[in-house]
What we know:
alpha/beta; Rossmann fold; UDP-N-acetylmuramoyl-L-alanine:D-glutamate ligase; eleven-stranded mixed beta sheet; seven-stranded parallel beta sheet; 18 strands; about 40% helix; elongated
Amino acid sequence: MTELLTSAQMRATERAAIESGQVTGLELMERAGRGVVEVVFEEWPELARAPHRALVLCGPGNNGGDGFVVARVLKDWGWEVEVFLYGDPAKLPPDAKANYQRWCAMGKVADPVSAIGDAQQPDLIVDAVFGTGLTRPVEGGLAQVLSTFDSFRALKDVRTVAVDISSGLCADSGRTLGTYASADLTVSFHSAKPGHYLSRGAQQAGRLRVRTIGLEGRPDIESVVRLADGMSGMGLGKAAVLHKYSHGHALILSGGAGKTGAARLAARGALRIGAGLVTLGVPGAAQMEVAGQITALMLRRVDSGAGLAEVLEDDRLNALCLGPGLGGERARDLVPVALCAGHGPGVVLDADALTAFQDDPKALFAMLHGKCVLTPHAGEFARLFPDIAEKLNAVPAEGPAYSKVDATRDAAQRAGCTVLFKGADTVIAAPDGRCSINSAQYDRAAPWLATAGSGDVLAGFITGLMARGFSPMQAAEAAAWLHVEAARSFGPGLIAEDLPEELPKVFRKLGL
């Protein structure tokens, strides 16, 4: 997995490099600005073949300093460059001021609030107003500047590149602070930021590229968020000498007659992802319905909590899934039994198993243990954690804004177990603060997952991996990543039933 550094963590990394003598701030700024131009020419080779026209919008901090470097490099390339500075040049940080002065030896600097409306149509717009350090909403004159900026972007053959992150977006949360800009391309440095993958971050970034600027290592930083970008070292393969019970036995609890489809999807997912055995626990009224639909899956009658307690006497059952199609009343009966069966089996709670406790979330939290995984979507999250959801959904008044990462971490700590908060920006957190983002955005976009039953399959994937011995956090991370890969592998036309059947193809690509 790849580390995503917050704005504070990135500043600490840069500061440590500068204080160690590894590099100067001016050198970092030069590398960043030149890196932006290099990426622009890589993404749009036609811009490198002949001089064009650029509009560079610089801000009052070091992000503006990067913009002055971009302007100078493009000018040296033969471009016509128009530069605007929002802020007082006398108050620029030292390195940004040095690059401002270097640019002033080559060209003019205008005030964007009064002059940007008179700018000629450019071929390239460079957004270097606010990078990772934005702490206040964009309002007033600058808001008008960004609106004009976006009106240029709507014109034919005008391309926009954001330096580090689009202005108006919080680099830690991806949330908007007042008016914000959009980009066709975003160039970040050393590390992507959580805000590139959360909330509006991916929508506003266009295409994201991360450019190295020569920083080696980093200081000790706690609570680093990781981006799920592969399954290297996850141990998904199976040893040839082992038997089915070596890979665990998962139990998926089903709803009543006419409501067994979701659990069957979850069970098929658990089996395909490698659980040695998977049993569906169904009420008597649904036995014939389920028996006529399954083959490799096993069937066990579970009418009530007492029936589940009897089934759980088999200590070979090491992972349970409750929720898909379960129904509220049945969930309230079975969930306490599943959670009181000791800390032996891992337990995945999804859908109805979460909603059933919306009137008394504390009762659920009191039963949870460290081998549980909760898998809420936004609505279920708000029902279980209403105060956290309210904080997340409130319009931020300052940055860094409260993020989906913050919310998921707080929820995991409160629940005392792993929480997977679904979405295109799925966030997974453990009670100890470990956190990762599984992004189905940019090149990993998988819009076909917006289909009935896909969440049930994800719950089954997690359950199957827990049956195989994965820790709750590992199982949630691996399942979420494979869920997206299966959707991308299948492509348009995907329905939930296709996801488990696509896993073998994904596994082969992974060399398993």
